[in-house]
């Protein structure tokens, strides 16, 4: 009906955001279903933006907008399954720009994953298993495409709230994302607070492996930006919780000069 792709982008993003914010989820699904197979792609030069160190990129194709507005469905228990369905379809079938915009619903699904069918079951089952597979699909994508900086920089947000990882899974996350400065909160979480904050979690987790890795990173890593990011995270914790100073003292001491920069 609309030959101009910019008209279609505007309809998807503006109407989709209005429908999502007003919780008109059935109408939002109609909009997504109408445009999810749109053939439009971003211009070739715009694909380079995924490889740039920036905070975000504008929506430049119809399915990028479709991927983004799907995140509204993840707020509601009755619709989070559809958010997962749309995210999976676009993640697996589309280009890396669409994959980037799929991270927005994947993050909301991660935050509200307790609403998924199969949550809390071991081994993972049903929708919860599908969610887990999508997270690690994107991790594998970055392992094979580390130049996609924008995607890599977003993934720590997802894994910071997806706290049900085993020791082996958390290690894989750090192995893949440690070259990104945005992985700094994961170093702190896995080493110092994961087990402490989630005492009743049934997943076995060996924080000592990550404490050793955190110390080695602060002492030996050539990635100065990452080290400063870790120390910045520690400083933010201390600003809010000065009582943590004794607990964090040994890590501050390892890179005292950086901490004072």
What does this structure look like?
The chain is mainly α. The chain contains 13 helices and no strands. It has helices at residues 5-21, 25-35, 62-69, 80-93, 96-111, 126-144, 149-161, 167-177, 184-197, 207-220, 224-240, 245-254, 256-259. The longest helix is centred in the middle third of the chain and has 19 residues, at 126-144. The protein starts with a helix and ends with a helix.
Question: Summed up, what is this model?
Answer:
This protein is 64% helix and 0% strand. With 261 residues, the chain is mainly α. The chain starts with a helix and ends with a helix.
Broad shape: globular
**Category by helix and strand content:** mainly alpha
Multimer state? single chain
Over all CA atoms, what is the radius of gyration? Answer: 20 Å
User: What low-confidence regions span 5 or more consecutive residues with pLDDT below 50?
Assistant: none
Q: What is the overall number of helices?
A: 13
Major sheet attributes: none
Helix content range: 55-70%
Give me some keywords for this one:
single chain, 261 residues, mainly alpha, 64% helix
Set down the secondary structure blueprint.
Blueprint: H1 5-21, H2 25-35, H3 62-69, H4 80-93, H5 96-111, H6 126-144, H7 149-161, H8 167-177, H9 184-197, H10 207-220, H11 224-240, H12 245-254, H13 256-259
Helix pairs in contact: 1-2, 1-3, 2-3, 3-5, 4-5, 4-6, 5-6, 5-7, 6-7, 9-10, 9-11
